[in-house]
Amino acid sequence: MLDYSQLEALAAVAKTGSFDQAAAELSVTPSAISQRIKALEERAGAVLIVRGQPCQPTQIGARLIRHFDDVMVLEHTLAGDIGPISDKSFTTLKIAVNADSLATWFLPPLSRMTGFLFDLVIDDQDHSADLLRCGQVIAAITSRAEPVQGCNSHPLGALRYSATATPDFMLKWLPHGATPDALKHAPTITFSPKDRLQVDWIRKTANTQITPPTHMMAGSNAFVEAACLGLGWCMNPDVLIQDHLKRGTLRRLNDTPLDTPLYWQVSRHVLQALAPLTKEILKEARDKLVQSAG
């Protein structure tokens, strides 16, 4: 049977990135943390932490942390049924979510939960399922409908984006509209190398494959501000830019939206434990996301 004080030490080192900070979090000495990790590595017969700045879990270490996280979530549910079984006030949930969902609709469901701390990993919706697949998170907002092995997938609706820019930007770079030739040269704004929203919208609206010049800017609200300052055109969630569209600060390049379907995928190990959170997320998504007519 695994020693959960050792697993707790492993998880703390991975979370904080150092033995000293893990020791402070668990109110023990760094030596105690080191001894627990060493004992767990001897038990597992493998290196579990790559020592560095910061320390990182190995693949086996990450799997053991995932097991520990699952058990903590299950104990949280058990405590709700039979009363407190440990002195921990909170259980940490590690969830992958795309930045635009976090900026527009995802936080209210979390605020309605009690007894949890949320460790949110921000990643593109097209890639967040990979974090679930390799065990780095226990749930994820993803654009992939097919369930990751060992998970359940719940359709949420679609986050609607519009290609937007300032009137001055459009006059300078797109005087005849969003034509393929103009889009080749007009600078855009991209969240990260994983972000394909702008390229996908070009393919949809102009029926061509174009990679425009782009700024890299990782931040949903920064996207809106950068567009308002005329740095480039970009895909913004409609819910974030409604006021700007009404005031005319931003204008749509054309009337073609881009809907990105989203799904809530949850590890089956903690499916029942996270049922209340899943209920709140599905409720919020029905209210805030675009729902299909069917």
Helix content: 40-55%
What Rg is obtained from the alpha carbons, in whole angstroms? 22 Å
Number of strands: 11
Q: Can you write the helix and strand succession as a string?
A: HHHEEHEHHEHEEHHEHEHEHEEH
> Which blocks of ≥5 consecutive residues have pLDDT under 50?
none
CATH topology of the domain at 159-259: D-Maltodextrin-Binding Protein, domain 2
Given this structure, which CATH class of the domain at 159-259 is correct?
Alpha Beta
Q: Return the structural class.
A: alpha/beta
* Biggest sheet descriptor: 7 strands, mixed
Mean pLDDT: 89
CATH architecture descriptor text of the domain at 159-259: 3-Layer(aba) Sandwich
The CATH superfamily of the domain at 159-259 turns out to be Periplasmic binding protein-like II
The dominant shape is elongated
The tally of helices reads 13
Q: Termini distance?
A: 49 Å
Describe the 3D structure.
The chain is of the alpha/beta class and 294 residues long. It has a domain at 159-259: 3-Layer(aba) Sandwich (D-Maltodextrin-Binding Protein, domain 2), CATH 3.40.190. 45% of the residues lie in helices and 20% in strands. The chain is built from 13 helices and 11 strands. The strands form 3 sheets. Strands 3, 4, 5, 6, 9, 10 and 11 form a 7-stranded mixed beta sheet that branches. Helix 10 (197-206) links the parallel strand 7 (188-190) and strand 8 (214-216). Helix 1 crosses helix 3, helix 1 crosses helix 4 (59-82) and helix 2 crosses helix 3. The radius of gyration is 22 Å and the shape is elongated. The mean pLDDT is 89.
